[in-house]
Structure formats: C-alpha cells, structure tokens
Prior knowledge:
By secondary structure, the chain is α/β, with parallel strands linked by helices. The chain has helices spanning 2-17, 25-32, 57-69, 83-88, 103-106, 135-138, 152-160, 172-180, 193-200, 227-242, 245-255; strands spanning 34-39, 47-48, 54-55, 72-77, 94-95, 109-111, 119-125, 144-148, 165-169, 186-190, 205-206, 214-215, 221-223. Strands 7, 8, 9, 10, 11 and 12 form a six-stranded mixed sheet that branches. The chain is elongated, with a radius of gyration of 25 Å.
Amino acid sequence: MKLIKTVLLGLLGIVLSLPAAATTNLDKINERGTLRVGMSTFVPWAMRNMQGELIGFEIDVGKRLAADSGWKVEFVPTAWDGIIPALLAQKFDVIIGGMSITEARAKSVLFTTPYSHSGVQIAANKALAKGFTQFSDFNSRKVKIAARRGAFTVQVARETFPKAKILQFDDDAQAFQEVLNGNAYAVIASSPKPEHEVIKHNDLLFLPFNERLAKGNEAFAVRLGEEDKKLFFDKWIKARTEDGWLSERYEYWFSTLDWQKQIAQE
C-alpha cells in the first residue's frame, strides 16, 4: 500500500510539473484581440490615400479577415526585402502582401492556399497589332515586343514569342511609351500594369488575350509549424472565394481605376 501511494504521489508530481496545454497560435491572436499583418506598399496591393490612410487590395483582405474573425487589425508596413525575416522575428502574425508561392520561400515560411492569381499580361498597339488574337500572331521576326530589363517578363516574352525581337528598357514606363509611340507592337509586364494602361490609353492600346501569359499564385505566409493558423486562414480563403468576395475585390483594384481618385496624382 505504501509503495502504491509513493508511485501515485510520484505520478502526481510529474503531472504538476508538466507545462499547461500549449497555447495555440490562434489563441495568442484571440488573447491580444488584434491581427498584426505584415505588408509592403505596392500599387494597387497597398498604398496611401490623400489622407495618409492605407488602402488597396491587401488592405481590404486584411480588414475583412479580421472583421470576420472578431479581431481588430494592425498593418505593419515593412520593406519587401525584409518582410520574411520580420515575420520570423514575430514582428507580426501573417504576411498578406501579394507574396507569390515559390519553392525558395516555402523553405522559410508556411503558405496558405492561394487567395489571388496575378501574373504577366501583354498590351498591344491597336494600329500595329490590329487583328492579332493568337500567340502565333506575335511570334514573328517582324514583331518587336518591349519589356523591362532584368524582369521575369523578359523570360516570359522569349519563351512565348521566341521569334520576336525583345526590346529591353530600364523601367516599365519606357517600355509602354515605346508601344504608345508605335515603335513596338506590344509590351509585356506584370499585372495589373497592362490592364491599367489599356484603360488610360484605350484609343491606342488593347489586350489581345483574355488569359494571362503567365499565372501567379499569391498566398498568406505564416511561420513554419503554425499549422493551426494556416488551416484557419485556408478556411477563410475558401469561404471568401466561394461567395465571390475575393474575386469582386480583385476586379475592383486590378481591372478598374475607380480607386485612383482616392490617391494623390503625380
């Protein structure tokens, strides 16, 4: 009997010495009551309006996610090249910043399912490329296509239109101006730049293809091992995808310029 009592006391001591059930990552956010979102300013993902307030697609997403979850939201503007280190240093809970899923990044962070799909698009000169509706129309030695030097778009242009001559410029503005001036048939750039430029210069430019030349997959990023947060965010993304809210917000920010009146004009 004495031996049994000793064993029971020993087990009780072990139980009492064990830490309380581990607090989940979501519990920490719930206790704080605020979701801290890491982001970087990049039009139209996130930017400042004329009152200095943050607006943009990512801002809408962060606010809706927090509201649906019963949290407040705190945006933490962070330089893009330091946003993953800042997440790992626990400066915020999640990155919602138009971050594309890549194998290299997946070694450092845990991605959710995609919530948006940007990519690369082509805008063409209406006069030079009149009647061009297929990739083969642009894949010709007589065709000149503009792109920003050193960008992923140059690779896309060469792979999609190997026969065309690729003209490279130091920035997108120069590349688009070359097409507006009629010196190139088309320009390839990351969305939504082509879509927005076509809206601005509808008399000179058009989108020859509805589908993008290359498709991106943007996702939220959390720290490795934070599976509970990933699953929670995945469910939210699924719900907002199925009810069309994410698509509606994406279309507003990426396919129109209705929001431009909110920001200071350069």
